[in-house]
Amino acid sequence: MLLHLSTWPEIDARLKQSRTVVIPIGSNEQHGPMGLLGTDWLCPEIIAHAAEKEADILVAPTFNIGMAQHHLGFSGTISLRPSTFMAAIEDWVRSLSRHGFDRIYFLNGHGGNVATIEAAFSQIYSSYSYAAEPCPFILKLKNWWDLPGISRLAAKLYPNGHGSHATPSEIAVTFAAYPDHVKSATMEPQIAPNGPIRDALDYRFRFPDGRIGSDSSLATIEHGKELIAASVKGLIDDLKKFDGE
Ligand code: NI
Question: Which of 70, 169, 188, 206 makes a 20 to 30 Å CA pair with 48?
Answer without folding.
Answer: 70
